[in-house]
């Protein structure tokens, strides 16, 4: 049964109260028509709880807007939701990606993540292509998807809103990787389910790296908002040489700053007995938060991105297949994932809105039960990047 407006109702009861479910819940296809967004196809989801989020079909089916009962959750940057036709992947010496960087979720990959890197291309057996120039965070986030379906599905008295699509990243004498994405939410809930499958459709042995840039903005992010995570070890910080200079630690967030230099941390997370890793940002004053739960065997690494510069105010939760050291280190350490033809990787993630103080308390209790996080704002950095042992690839599909 669906829990709608403080009432548990079966399908007949719901349908008796409306001519269409879209009166309070549904998923619909629209096209944006102005500015840098012009021409982008978008799916709008409403779960019936006050949760609304949008999926940009033409930008890898990433989640753009997210709001709950009128409160913004996702981040909007000055770049806006830019049409991929305006994107210059190799622009600005590989930093052109920043001009398309906006929204609750940006997918990074499929063969490269993190900063710009020049990779050997001998696996593609093409003499003119000796090297591959990778821009920051890879290509996939600005590739349009082929929408394969969307709508609502009833299972007895439960209703699910869903969308599926395929994002193909391919070239001649190079990679041919495909991302199969399914996004689903049950009516009457605040739990977005994200299921990704990355497959090597080509016939070259191809590297694979994958990361989600999940960006939370004001008002969930605000003065005294708290980062909750089952942190066993704080491994690394990009700002280690100036650890305390900006006066911002990892756990409690400040108000927007002038002249703030981004801070990035890598935390070693402990998983629960089922292999899940929950991470959250919560605003106790509002009784509102967001929790992201991933699988440790799928995303063994986690980063925390702090961009508290005025006008760009955001904090990012970033589950990743690899350490923040980047592609070069992954190759040297033997940790780069290689996919043969037909081999694939699966990623299952839950993005949950914490709707009140009780949700926040339960989330915090779950996280503490897995591992208490450091109480210090500036915990000592271990520098211990644990060896990664990727699970065996899966074939098929």
Summarize the structure.
The chain is mainly beta and 397 residues long. The chain has three helices and 25 strands.
Query: What is the helical fraction, as a range of percent?
Result: under 10%
**Class computed from helices, strands and strand pairing:** mainly beta
Instruction: Tell me the β content.
Output: 35-45%
Spatial ordering of strands, largest sheet: 11-12-13-14-25-21-20-17
Number of strands: 25
Termini separation comes to 33 Å
Radius of gyration: 21 Å
| Order of H and E elements | EEHEEEEEEEEEEEEEEEEEEEEEHEEH
**Uncertain runs:** none
The biggest beta sheet reads:
8 strands, antiparallel
Q: Give the overall average pLDDT.
A: 95
Number of helices: 3
Topology:
Layout: E1 2-4, E2 7-9, H1 11-15, E3 26-31, E4 41-46, E5 51-56, E6 62-68, E7 71-72, E8 105-108, E9 117-120, E10 131-134, E11 146-155, E12 158-170, E13 176-186, E14 191-200, E15 206-208, E16 211-216, E17 226-228, E18 231-237, E19 263-269, E20 276-283, E21 288-295, E22 301-307, E23 314-320, H2 327-332, E24 337-339, E25 344-354, H3 357-370
Antiparallel strand pairs: 1-2, 3-4, 4-5, 5-6, 6-7, 8-16, 9-10, 11-12, 12-13, 13-14, 14-25, 15-24, 16-23, 17-20, 18-19, 19-22, 20-21, 21-25, 22-23
Overview of the structural elements:
The chain has 397 residues and is mainly beta. It is built from three helices and 25 strands. An eight-stranded antiparallel sheet has the order 11-12-13-14-25-21-20-17. The chain has a six-stranded antiparallel sheet with strand order 8-16-23-22-19-18, with no helix packed on it. The chain is globular. The model has no long low-confidence stretch (mean pLDDT 95).
